[in-house]
Amino acid sequence: MIPGPFSYHRPATLADAVKLLSTLGDEARPLAGGHSLVPMMKLRLASPEHLVDLHGIAGLKGIRRDGNTIVIGAMTTQHELLASDEIGKSLPILDETALLIADPQVRYRGTIGGNVANGDPGNDMPALMMTLGASYRLEGASGAREVAAAEFYQGAYFTALEPGELLTSISIPVPATGHGYAYEKLKRKVGDYATAAAAVVLTMAGGKVATCKIGLTNLSETPLLAEDAAKAVIGTSLDPAALKIAAAAAVAIMSPAADARGPVEYRKHVGGIMVTRALQRAVGRAS
Amino acid sequence: MNDMTPTREQREAKLEGMGCKRKRVEDIRFTQGKGNYVDDLKLPGMLHGDFVRSPHAHARVKKIDDTEALKVPGVLAVITAETLKTVNLAWMPTLAGDVQMVLADGKVLFQNQEVAFVVATDRYAADDGINKVVVEYEPLPPLIDPFKAMDKDAPVLREDLAGKTTGVHGPRKHHNHVFEWTVGDKDLTDAAFRKAEVTIKEMISYHRTHPSPLETCQCVCSFDKIRGELTIWGTFQAPHVIRTVVALIAKIPEHKIHVISPDIGGGFGNKVGAYPGYICAAVASIVTGKPVKWVEDRIENLTATSFARDYHMTTEIASTKEGKVTGLRVHVLADHGAFDACADPSKWPAGFFNIVTGSYDFPTAHLSVDGIYTNKALGGVAYRCSFRVTEAAYCIERAMDILAQKLNMDPAELRLKNFIKPEQFPYHSALGWEYDSGDYHTAMRKMMETVDYAGLRKEQALLRAAFKRGETREIMGLGVSFFTEIVGAGPSKNCDILGIAMFDSCEIRLHPTGAGIARVGSKSQGQGHETTWAQIIATEIGIPADDIMVEEGNTDTAPYGLGTYGSRSTPVAGAAIAMAARKIKAKAQMIAAYKLEVHEDDLEWDIDGFRVKGLPEKTMSMKDICWAAYNSVPPGMEPGLEAVSYYDPPNMTYPFGAYICVMNIDVDTGVYKVRRFYALDDCGTRINPMIIEGQVHGGLTEAFAIAMGQEIRYDADGNVVTGSFMDFFMPTAVETPHWETDFTVTPSPHHPIGAKGVGESPNVGGVPAFSNAVNDAFSFLGSTHIQMPHDYWRNWKAAKDLGAVA
């Protein structure tokens, strides 16, 4: 578990970082919290020749509200999300999810940008970002663009990021006041990826579900939006029959791999249960 | 007496002797990051070695090309089996009487087997070099399933054993067979089964797991060419044995080998054996003339140094209708991996598995064990248990529950009915052991009363009814475990390692001012010997524990000992300490008599010195005796106050305990919740109750891990799929249940201070308690036995197989 040789760069500006990444090409990797990349390097599953450390770029940190949107800098740590009053008030599901990521030591280093940009299907934030309708700002040599989280993930570790591009911030529309939310994660122990996890954000009107989004973590090569499942509960009071239909619709799009967390059948089964439980908990929180 | 004279209680308290919850003296340095571990050692010019390992479970090694590796800056040498052959070290003996490759010689027999050793100026260069060594393999069919090892057409693993129909433990039945070991009266046992009113039979597997100490295995070897001396700092649980092994295989005179075990970060059996890393580092140091460090990483530790268990135990009990057991028959298929490197006393190829009759009065029993080779890592060490004792305890404790279920009897009642009775001790078991002491009924009843066992059963009945009515998706299990251990190896009549009897030793040297040093042949890896050994001495000779320094681990200074594993330190080394102290006390008595001008027989011991019988004011403290020992001993007596004792125990000791686990399981997800865990331990005399509690907490945490998910699992091709802490279940404080501890005290009649040893009891007794809880939870749905480990998905599968989940 000793990494191969690499050169280390610590640019002070975003422009320098982008320039470095585009000049150095495929052999360069940006370094955020390092909790995915560094273990891969220690196992020599990743052997980048250049590491471009983003910690020197002040502009990549911070949480601000811009009208009805929360904008989070990519280098904001999970701990900083948890410490933010703005997040606690506007996006409580983000707190709930961040608390289920590993342990405090990891959360002090791990960043939201690294979590969503890496394309690891085990990461918790991507499915949540899709559920919240977030978008990512990507900046590269040819300029900046916005990509919806729902359009970003293409396969395990494959994303819409072009070579030399950096994910610099995340914009999340603030959910309606009184929305219900829940992130349900089944894991074997602290620090483990989800065996299955589901994010739910919904609103209620007159005792019926008015809007609903459901996201799924680690149940496919990419995070998933369970759109049919969400549609199935809209207009219902989340009665047992509706829950059952929603869970089945969510299970239908799951395609997890068998691993030490369990065989495919189990992971899909508990995936359905996570959806059910997240819906139940979310509706209990909605007003 | 004036007011300043300390009371007897104050004098007693000042000693901090046996029974005192003395704080661990080691923790002063450990909690400040001032421990001194092997990897802290940095010697001038020190080189670093690391291994090229096999990606295959079974393959022929066609060619090893080190050309490119040697071009990597900093890489100095690549050692292969061919290099080692020039010094006759390509193979080495194992503790179990087998031989093993040090580096792959012609073929590899398990994934991550050591193939070549790259030596470089730093660890990074060594690993860069590893990536440049090109090894050409020709894959061979792997043998992973132990039940297929003795198939007629099973692949031949050990070509070096071709034609050898006899091994060190007797005849070999098949090319993948290691040994067969049988104990007990077969005819009598078969007869008991023929006559039995009730029988049960179950194949109970104890899966492969790993001790995984926090600090991995490592060493620094430094060969001094001028003096011809080899110094080895290493993570050795048994440093003297390592010195002897090195002397025997490296042909260096034993007095020119210095083995030093500094602070060790946990062992649990993983650090008993001799590993290729030690040999390669020593050879590399001899070749280069420089110190060479070898430090395993976590993956290497989990996949290549000694595993534990992998015992598959077909178990039968014969009983009367009323539940009185009449016979036990066990056959074990023991998967030893590629080489038999099980760390057992020489004559015990299956350790002390014949303790499998447990706490019960079986009139007859028969045991046979077949050891076999597979394409898996070698080992079979005692992971926080005496030799194969946790396997035996799991086997009988699970089987007793299965019998209870068949008889429709409560498992606690069945145990009470069959316990060896207090008046039967010393008890001779059907499989050959003499249990020293026990009071099982008292311990069991104390457990049942403390947890309100009857109340828990009522709650379980209500919950089961509610489950059947569809009102809950939770089920509840009570896991009862009543274990008897056999520890303290061991008496020279039946225990040796490499021909060396398994005694242990202590040397105590008291200084003129009344302080002293005790050097002991054991080696703490976290057990707190520096604290507890001084407490034994404090009580025995009246010198405060704080004034005794305990030193272990340096073979140049410590007397020869067999090391620390198998809960042997207190039963054997602890006895040697008491005996050495008593020798000192006897000499001290002569000195005191001389100084007090009375006959020795007129003196009596009083806490911290001697007093003249009938004249309580005429006393001489041990502190004053120490001074006198250096200036005014009786005529003809040698000055000084020191003693050595080598203790050969007359028998093993037999700690026992009553444990219960209360667990709820959500059948839809398989997620369990340990609601309560109560552990009553009887380890005889208790030296330091705080350390005992700590030991029990640690052992229960390991037992929890093992039973609930911790396994070394291979896929069909022989790839380890649980090779890191991502998948090898190492619970954190968040997952670990709360532990309740309790005790009874039944001293060992043959041990000088009546102590029995405790470090391993919680692992031995804990695993069956957890597994019985899971099995008990599911039993009302119709299951008799569900194999460990009981992780979430397997619990769900059990529920599904039983029809409880759609």
Shape annotation of chain B: globular
The H-level CATH homologous superfamily of the largest domain in chain B, spelled out, is: Aldehyde oxidase/xanthine dehydrogenase, molybdopterin binding domain
Query: Could you name the ranges of chain B where pLDDT drops below 50 across 5 or more consecutive residues?
Result: none
Oligomer: heterodimer
Helix run count of chain A: 12
What's the shape of chain A? globular
How would you sum up the major sheet of chain B?
7 strands, mixed
By CATH, the topology of the largest domain in chain B is Aldehyde Oxidoreductase, domain 4
What's the total number of strands of chain B?
35
Helical residue percent of chain A? Answer: 25-40%
Provide an overview of this structure.
The complex is a heterodimer of chains A (287) and B (806). Chain A is of the alpha+beta class and 287 residues long. Helix content of chain A is 36%, strand content 26%. Chain A has 3 domains: 7-53, Uridine Diphospho-n-acetylenolpyruvylglucosamine Reductase, domain 2 (2-Layer Sandwich), CATH 3.30.43; 60-173, Uridine Diphospho-n-acetylenolpyruvylglucosamine Reductase, domain 3 (2-Layer Sandwich), CATH 3.30.465.10; 180-285, CO dehydrogenase flavoprotein, C-terminal domain (Enolase-like, domain 1). A 5-stranded antiparallel beta sheet of chain A has the order 4-5-10-6-7. In chain A, strands 11-12-13-14 form a 4-stranded antiparallel beta sheet, with helices on both faces. Chain A has a 3-stranded parallel beta sheet with strand order 1-3-2, with helices on one face. Chain A is globular. The mean pLDDT of chain A is 97. By secondary structure, chain B is an alpha+beta fold. Chain B folds into 3 domains: 8-35 and 504-647, 2-Layer Sandwich (Aldehyde Oxidoreductase, domain 4), CATH 3.30.365; 38-140 and 216-264 and 271-304, Aldehyde Oxidoreductase, domain 3 (Alpha-Beta Complex), CATH 3.90.1170.50; 307-489 and 652-801, Aldehyde Oxidoreductase, domain 4 (2-Layer Sandwich). Chain B is built from 19 helices and 35 strands. In chain B, a hairpin with a 5-residue loop joins strand 4 and strand 5. In chain B, helix 10 (389-407) packs parallel to helix 18 (761-779) and helix 17 (689-708) packs across helix 18. The longest helix of chain B is centred in the C-terminal third of the chain and has 28 residues, at 569-596. Chains A and B meet through helix 12 of A and helix 5 and helix 19 of B.
